[in-house]
């Protein structure tokens, strides 16, 4: 029997003596990986179904989506996985390690001809060393962890030969963007692509990783690059043993055989929204950028860092442009440090992050904001994938060159002086000075149902947790009120417009976050009465024209949860409308009254 590359790997890992396209085969999985993204669900699937891990020596956690642990949900998932790993003897490559698919190559865990699955959709990056890698959902991964095997449908194979000589200045990223230009997002859908040619044989590991990593964007199952002698030597050194070289049979049958002329490839860039929407960089008309990003599983390798450093050395990033650089693994990061590349990056004005996925994962540096124009070395620029702005995809050299120029360009077209952002305001624009303001009359006496939250030292993280600090729309804030305060986590669901909160001492201790005041307004809460307030919180409330009042003795009112009270801001009189009992508390000061009547400090 003769086999294509993918057929040989799958046959070697199944009970069948031969496989062909369309067959469903049960294959043994050599390396089973779960990341911080999806890892917690893998564990929950195992626990909920009473399953145990088949072979912990082949099972790994990699925390690469949020290696800063800066997001509460990621941090929770990571710790949940750590605890499971400790209990079950599973290896964890923690937040200091880097991108999982790169790590298993670096550590010699994945080898040519092996099978790898991960909760990473770019697990097919393993094609760079001639291994079969596949991204899968958490149920799939959990089943493989429990059984050591999983089913797979044998894909048809395409033999793609890149003939001719690679032109000077054409990077591996340019090669794969040219392929995207030719095949789009679906012509190779569902195929296993084998890549051949003299120039392909000479590709470094880093270049192979770049090309293989974007198989997903072409719709391909995988791009398999037969390992050269250099790649075999690298993998043997990392694995610490002699390895068997695997290849397709000479008489293998392919669904399609294609040849492209590599010598005609051009420096390419993907326009925002679609990786396959590629054009020659030279056709773009000096598109201004706000930010640039170098990293990801596609271009975070040492060769990528060297290319960026070559261009950035002795240069500065254009004024107003932000450049973010994130090496793929800690090994790459440390090598950058040893070789002085980190200094070059910092001297140029770049922000350097710790190893990980970075911009592709919402939890780490590399995200952009609305209307922000970014040029990135990532593999995807889908709307919202790397933020709310627009993202162009290019090679590390082009990204570095663009960061220096201030607009999208190539290394050989960097101007002597960068473009700079100019103020859009001119001296001739009139200044709007408001001399008189008509204020809407605000009530000085309110009535409302009370919430008795008689607890001292309720801090701003209990009131409005820091994981929500990026929210700027006041209408969106209210739903998160007290969701970090035990016993009152359902406050937002039960609160009604007109409610009044009565609480204890030092309410609002902690952070200066204005949201901890504003979200009460979004729910329609009328006022807060407390024995005392945190100093910053009290100022924030007064300046937002949100009524806060301090009481000394309020027990005489005989209050019960849900009672209705009346509060007079001018006199300080508080009356329980259920029993007509009244007390006097601190009334509004003259400053508080003035700001309240205006509707806020800035009115």
Features:
single chain, 603 residues, alpha/beta, Aconitase, domain 3, seven-stranded mixed β-sheet, 29% helix, elongated
Give the topology.
Blueprint: H1 5-12, E1 24-28, E2 31-35, H2 36-48, E3 59-62, H3 72-88, E4 91-93, H4 100-106, E5 115-118, E6 132-135, H5 138-147, E7 149-153, E8 157-163, H6 172-183, E9 192-196, H7 198-201, H8 205-213, E10 222-224, H9 229-239, E11 256-261, E12 268-270, E13 278-280, E14 291-294, H10 296-299, H11 302-312, E15 322-325, H12 330-338, H13 341-348, E16 351-352, E17 373-376, E18 390-393, H14 396-405, E19 445-453, H15 460-463, H16 474-477, H17 491-494, E20 500-503, H18 515-523, E21 527-530, H19 535-543, E22 548-550, E23 564-568, E24 573-576, E25 581-584, H20 590-598
Parallel strand pairs: 2-3, 2-5, 3-4, 5-6, 8-9, 8-11, 9-10, 14-15, 14-17, 15-16, 17-18, 19-20, 20-21, 21-22
Antiparallel strand pairs: 1-7, 12-13, 19-23, 23-24, 24-25
Helix pairs in contact: 2-3, 2-5, 6-8, 11-13, 11-14
Any overview of this molecule?
The model is unreliable at 426-439 (pLDDT under 50). The protein has 603 residues and is α/β, with parallel strands linked by helices. The longest helix is centred in the N-terminal third of the chain and has 17 residues, at 72-88. The strands form 6 sheets. Strands 22-21-20-19-23-24-25 form a 7-stranded mixed β-sheet. A 5-stranded parallel β-sheet has the order 4-3-2-5-6, sandwiched between helices. A 5-stranded parallel β-sheet has the order 16-15-14-17-18, covered by helices on one side. The protein is elongated. Helices cover 29% and strands 18% of the residues. The chain has 3 domains: 5-264, 2-Layer Sandwich (Aconitase, domain 3); 268-413, Aconitase, domain 3, CATH 3.30.499; 445-598, Aconitase, domain 4 (Alpha-Beta Barrel). The N and C termini lie far apart (82 Å).
